Task: structure prediction
Amino acid sequence: MNKPFAWSGMSLGLFAALALIVMGCSQSDNKGGQAKDSGKQVAHKDDDGHDHSKDKEGHGHGWWCDDHGIPEEECSMCQAKAEKEAKAKGDWCEKHERALSQCFHCRPERREFYAAKHRAKFGKEPPPIPEFDEKKGDGKKKE
Result:
């Protein structure tokens, strides 16, 4: 076999493998081959300044949404599908723009419900929720 031809074939193979790896890493998590809801833009900020104007496809935290203290797949503030389902069931808080069953402002006991899910899965307390845990009683964020 001609050595320059062998090197070019091996280079082409390495390039193809690298291209597949890069393309695979850039794909969104699409479980079961089902199409996700189209990314929905939400044009509001919570009182804490958390910007929800990004694509509602989740924050990519994995199983738990650190920003809202809810499993990512169920988070109506991050997942357009969860928002749509909550609205369809009449489970919606207009004031805080999230599922009422996930509104820790209106239903603080629901925070413990979700914290129990986190403890059951990880055996430890969930991380603090910036919207609730980084404020002092005077409404200012902790230093």
About this structure: The first helix runs from residue 3 to 26.
